[in-house]
User: What shape does this take?
Amino acid sequence: MENKRTCLYDKHVALGALISPFGGFDMPIQYSNIIDEHQAVRQHCGVFDVSHMGEVLVTGKDAERYVNHIFTNDVRGIPLGKILYGMMCYEDGGVVDDLLVYKVADDRFFLVINASNIDKDWAWIQQQADGFEVTLEHQSDQYGELAIQGPEAEQVMEQILGIACKELAFYTFKTIGDVIVSRTGYTGEDGFEVYASADNINEYWDKLMAAGIKPCGLGCRDTLRFEVGLPLYGDELSETITPIMAGLGIFVKLDKEEFIGKEALAKQKVEGAPKKLVGIELHDKAIPRHGYSVLKDGNVIGEVTTGYHTISTDKSVCMALIDSQYAALDTPVEIQIRKKTFPGTVCKKRFYDKHYKK
Assistant: This one.
């Protein structure tokens, strides 16, 4: 099956981007290089084409009750214009996907899901709707999406795109005609995500390029999210990695009525999960990669989920899923890299401080 392409694909090719498959799409991985693009977002502003993300609209009398049934966070009574992060889980607590829920109206919720999970999520969302008076609309093909990220993002939005956004607090949004503008992102910096038609997205992209804003690929999107400890589905969350194991229990509201996976997650919260996601810092420049084994006294106790030599802090670090009994901070461990093992220490998963707008 051929990969899909976003509405900006030809522009990425014209800019000389390195294109690679991701989540069923041909996506730009980098334009100049990952370090330059990463630093642009940390220090100034960069723009990402994230049109590969999926969108689902839930409307109807039972919209709030239904969303709460499939979502670990609690949307009851949240204000209009508010966004919540959370997961959809299976009965056993494993994760279908992590997602954002936008409250458009009391009977209208906009769900943003991961590109690689669009078909699976859409099938799941439909299957769970029995007994709820809701209308579900798969809107992924109607929207392109840009992420404008970095300390100068607000200025760029207002001055270059002419989109007023100063008043938006973190994790809130507004709609301007058919355009949705939210103060969200996946980089640990202040920033915005703009959902709009292909024509609008192309027009915004051209304005940003003309103004010299740096285009950024999925390569630095990963290094940026990793440094601030944000999870990637398939690495830090999956069908076998629950939100509790991933240290994301804050987004699992056990005090609300039934939701899918509640019982299993409540049990894990009380009894403790068998495995836990931790940070590990290596005492060496070697780079721990996804799938590498983590050892304790020569025995395998887990594996690396994401690892890099960080761009912002110049350290070899990783996130790893390991047996819970070794998850305490400062526990010495080793990581197997090819035929050698390298000593490391369990540390916090956030390797760089977030800089969101308060």
